[in-house]
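HUMAN: You are asked to prepare a plain-text protein record giving the amino acid sequence and the backbone structure tokens, both parts labelled.

ASSISTANT:
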Amino acid sequence: MADMIIGARGKGNKTPPPRVDLTPMVDLGFLLITFFMFTTTLAAPRTLELNMPSKERPDSPTAFPEESTLTLLPGPGHRVYYYNGKFSGADTLSSVPLQQVVKLVAARKAHAAALPASISARAHQLHVIIRPADGSRFEDLVTVLDAMLIDQIDIYAVADISPQEAALMIPVRH
């Protein structure tokens, strides 16, 4: 605690000022730091659940109804290239800025829900295929996956881009 040194008083003796021992205070500080470190919860890791197609059966492709299929191609320059149904060349490929992908997916979801009743019930749900290009950034893929969660798209897959799609991504009408 506090040490008080009291010396003999005299004409030539100067009394030193009282000295406070801070060792117990430092010990208490470390005990408190240790207590709060053990009792606090650190930031929980944030993960995104992503189910990839099985590679065990590559010979059996998944069938998607063309009327309600949207293929998104995150590309260079923070743009998302897309086409509906089957890929048939440059005339079907369009692009939007990355910030508008949520609106695009919402519009396609509404279009799929408005299909005639004569089409199967599976076709009334939007099926999205995401194929990131070589020039795209990881953040762009995460933004597109976030758009699936925002628009509540249950059926989507991440796949490799085909060489035909990659070759046509740059000369696209906007």
